[in-house]
Amino acid sequence: MTDHPLSQILPSFDSHSYHAGINMAFSEVVGAGCKMLALSSTYSREYAEEMLSATRHAAEEYNTLLYIEPDLLVTKLFPKDVAKDKTVILIAHNQSVLDEYHSLKKLKIESDEKGNPDEIEDEIARRFGVLLSYDKATLERLLAKHG
C-alpha cells in the first residue's frame, strides 16, 4: 500500500500497522459504547486475512465482536461500489448489532426483489446509519450525496 498519502509523509509507513491501528481504535470506540458498529477499511480477501489476527486482538482487548463481511450491505449512504469485490471487517458492540445488520441484509434482498423501492432503500440506509451511530445531520448529508 505504498500509494497511501501517508507513505509520502512518513518514510517508514507500513500499511499493516496503519490498518491495525485503525481497527484497534474502532474496537476501543465501539467497546466503550460510543459507536454500535464500525467498519474497517475495504480490503482484498487476502489482505483481510492478514489483518484478522490483529483485529481479533483488538476485539478481545475491548470486548467487541467481529464479522468478516465479503459482501457489504449496499445502501444509499455510500457509493454503490465502495466495497465491490472487497472484504470489510465489521466491529460490533454486541450480538444484537450484528443481528440487526443481518436483518438489514435480508431486507435488502427483499428490496432487490421488489425493484428497490425508495421507501425500503431509505429505511435500510437510515437503519444502517443508526447502527453506525451517525447523527441526523451526517445521515442526511450522506443520503443527499449518495442517495
Give a brief description.
This protein has helices at residues 6-9, 15-31, 45-62, 95-113, 118-131, 136-146; strands at 37-39, 65-69, 88-92.
What does this structure look like?
Helices cover 56% and strands 9% of the residues. It has 147 residues and is mainly alpha-helical. It is globular and about 50 Å long. The chain starts with 5 loop residues before the first helix and ends with a helix.
Spell out the key features of this protein:
147 residues, mainly alpha, three-stranded antiparallel β-sheet, 6 helices
List the topology elements.
Blueprint: H1 6-9, H2 15-31, E1 37-39, H3 45-62, E2 65-69, E3 88-92, H4 95-113, H5 118-131, H6 136-146
Antiparallel strand pairs: 1-3, 2-3
Question: How far is the first residue's CA from the last residue's CA?
Answer: 30 Å
Q: Provide the spatial order of strands within the biggest beta sheet.
A: 1-3-2
The chain-level structural class is: mainly alpha
* DSSP helix fraction: 55-70%
The outline comes out as globular
Rg calc: 16 Å
Strand content: 5-15%
Helix-strand string: HHEHEEHHH
Tally the helices. 6
Query: How many domains make up the coordinates?
Result: 1
Number of strands: 3
Output mean pLDDT: 96
